[in-house]
Design goal:
The chain is of the alpha/beta class and 297 residues long. It has 11 helices and 7 strands. The chain has helices at 18-28, 45-52, 65-75, 95-102, 121-138, 154-158, 170-180, 203-221, 224-249, 254-277, 282-296; strands at residues 5-11, 33-39, 55-59, 80-83, 108-113, 150-153, 185-190. It has a 7-stranded mixed beta sheet with strand order 3-2-1-4-6-5-7, with helices on both faces. Helix 5 packs parallel to helix 8, helix 7 (170-180) runs parallel beside helix 8 and helix 9 (224-249) runs antiparallel to helix 10 (254-277). The longest helix is centred in the last third of the chain and has 26 residues, at 224-249. It is elongated and about 85 Å long. The two termini are 18 Å apart.
């Protein structure tokens, strides 16, 4: 049975590039539900949507890219969601390749930007750094952590809406959440041209947010990947300091004791956090069982 597809395009003052984006999606996927989420635009976004006959979800003020994604996911009727930007960087002609990969049985397919994509050197380096860090967290290779061009299973995506931030780091959160929940993720190489208009991304501010999101998701789904290295660092520091003070002064100092105690407490906190993080899988398993019963009946 074929999937019903909803294409969700968050837009904030993207009137210059939005018409060509909408035409491209209509020509590529003529039967899809097309939703534009107007995130407090002050230009002609609403009029453009009306002229192209697409479904418009409007925010009364700018809430952020992540908030627009969540609004679109709640409003969509399709069982497959496609997210793409309205700034001209995500090409509608890449949609068939992403959907074909999704139809192989994956839960999420991400358009991974290649070396020739116009993202800027600083953003490319930051994306590579964050991707490596996130890959270490989830023990899976993440080719592009921050790409917003993706196809997802609607039901599984909505499980994590409560985790998604309102800012630009929603791709980071949903990618790590899918990996840690055991959902399958695939990548399709894409090339992104230079965006039309001015970017709303602030590299320093949003870079710090990306890092905090990675740490937050890591503690939610794989706490020991964070707590165990910290505990080991405390222990080794205490051991080295104890060896130094014993050789030099022949005694065991309070600082060494503090390091050893900190190592033990950090390790125990990590164990408790692992047990708490297991609760995130409870609703997923219940949902799978309910689907199985409904299919049998």
């Amino acid at each position: 049975m074929g999937h019903s597809v909803s294409v969700i395009i968050p837009a904030r003052n993207e009137a210059a590039s939005l018409p060509s984006c909408l035409r491209g999606v209509r020509n590529t996927l003529p039967g899809c539900e097309l939703i534009v989420v107007d995130d407090g635009s002050t230009d002609d976004t609403a009029d453009i949507c009306a002229a192209h006959g697409v479904r418009l979800v409007a925010h009364p003020y700018a809430m952020g890219n992540g908030a627009a994604i969540k609004s679109g996911a709640r409003a969509a009727r399709g069982d497959v969601l496609v997210f793409m930007d309205a700034d001209g960087q995500h090409k509608p002609e890449d949609l068939p390749a992403l959907l074909a990969k999704f139809n192989e049985g994956y839960d999420m397919v991400v358009g991974a930007r290649g070396d020739g994509s116009h993202a800027g050197v600083h953003r490319a380096v930051a994306n590579d750094l964050f991707s490596r860090m996130a890959s270490w967290m989830v023990r899976q290779h993440i080719q592009d952590l921050t790409s917003g061009f993706r196809v997802v299973n609607a039901d599984k995506f909505r499980k994590f809406l409560y985790l998604l931030p309102n800012g630009f780091s929603y791709p980071t959160t949903i990618t790590m959440s899918f990996f840690r929940a055991g959902f399958s993720v695939a990548y399709v190489p894409i090339q992104t041209p230079r965006r039309i208009g001015r970017s709303h991304l602030r590299p320093l501010r949003d870079g710090v947010r990306f890092l905090l999101i990675i740490i937050k998701i890591g503690t939610l789904y794989s706490p020991q990947r964070l707590f165990l290295p910290v505990s080991a660092a405390f222990f080794l520091t205490g051991l080295a300091y104890y060896a130094f003070t014993y050789i030099e002064f022949g005694r065991f100092t309070n600082m060494s004791a503090l390091m050893f105690i900190s190592a033990i407490l950090t390790f125990l906190i990590g164990i408790v956090s692992e047990q708490i993080s297991a609760l995130h899988y409870k609703d997923i398993d219940v949902h799978r069982e309910s689907i199985g019963r409904s299919e049998e009946s």
